Amino acid sequence: MLTVCCVWLHKHKQRGVGALAVITTLLYLISIPLVGDWLLRSLESRYQPPAAVSGDVIVVLGGGATADTPNVHGKGHLMGSAANRLLTAAQLYHSIGAPIIISGGQVFANTGKEAEIARHILLGIGIPDEKIIVEGQSLNTTDNAKFTKQILAERAFTHPILVTSAFHMERSVGQFTKYNMTVLPYPTDYQTNTRFIFEWNQLWPRADAFYNSQLVIKEYLGLMAIRWF
Predict the structure, then answer these.
(1) Reduced to 3 states, what is the DSSP secondary structure of residue 157?
(2) Which of 48, 87, 119, 170 is the most exposed place for a label (fewest CB within 10 A)?
(3) Could you confirm whether the keyword Glycoprotein appears in this record (predicted)?
(4) How far apart (Å, rounded) are the C-alpha atoms in residues 90 and 93?
(5) pLDDT tens, 168-186?
(6) For the chain, what are the domain ranges?
(7) What's the Rg (C-alpha) of the chain?
(8) 15: which residues sit within 8 A by CB, 6+ positions away?
(9) 122 pLDDT band (50/70/90 cuts)?
(10) Are 52 and 92 in contact (CB under 8 A)?
């Protein structure tokens, strides 16, 4: 692919210079915190944690796990977003006492079984086993909604509280709505500040800013898929 691009640029020098300038500018923009954070904030601001929380079950979505890393309560760790989501679910449990559905399977052969790892963590911090429901089949957000709906029907839950990252909430609500579920969104795992404060270092390219930009692209593509298919 790189060779083809080089040949094309050599044959079309004038147009190639313009195209290269556009590509370079776009790469720069999505690699700086000023843009990456702004894009992510556009998703994170869609939902706010409710002032009053009520529901008969807490549904927390997985967000990545390692398989064999040593942990206090066994092996396997949740990734940053998944850990933040689980922490919020645990806090909600201590607030309202509703059982927790952990939704997340083993996405790849070298990743952990998210729901099982999360279960061991919850047990380790004192949440009773009978209050934990493991949904370990999901490989994506669509699966989260599909398999959670089955559990809600089997156990007669009617008012689920949905816990996931703020940037992921709109797509998650969209999928759950598509499966005819009404949820109370409880966003967490915020990656940006609510209030924007400009700093000059926000103009320097950074890997985390590029990562935030690609997260946003993924979420918007997911939203388009929900609406079109």
Answers:
(1) coil
(2) 48
(3) no
(4) 5
(5) 999 999 999 999 999 999 9
(6) 57-188
(7) 21
(8) none
(9) very high
(10) no
Q: Say if CB 157 and CB 151 are below 8 A apart.
A: yes
Compute how many other C-beta atoms are within 10 angstroms of the C-beta atom of residue 198: 8
| 66 bridge partner residues | 77, 111
Identity at 32, one-letter amino acid code: I
H or E element at residue 29: helix 13-29
- pLDDT tens digits along 18-49: 677 777 888 888 888 888 889 999 999 999 99
**Helix/strand/coil for 66:** strand
SS3 for 80-139, per residue?
A: HHHHHHHHHHHHHHHHHCCCEEEECCCCCCCECCHHHHHHHHHHHCCCCHHHEEEECCCC
Residue type, 186: Y
CA distance 115 to 102: 5
CATH class of the domain at 57-188: alpha beta
**pLDDT confidence tier of residue 15, bands split at 50, 70 and 90:** low
Q: Which residues contact 140 (CB under 8 A, 6 or more apart)?
A: 107
pLDDT of residue 25: 82
Q: Say what the pLDDT of residue 69 is.
A: 84
Helix (H, G, I), strand (E, B) or coil at 159: coil
Cβ distance 115 to 104 under 8 Å? yes
Query: What stretch of H or E contains 156?
Result: none
How far is the C-alpha of 94 from the C-alpha of 73, rounded, in Å?
A: 20
d(CA 206, CA 31) in angstroms, rounded, equals: 6
Q: What DSSP character marks residue 2?
A: H
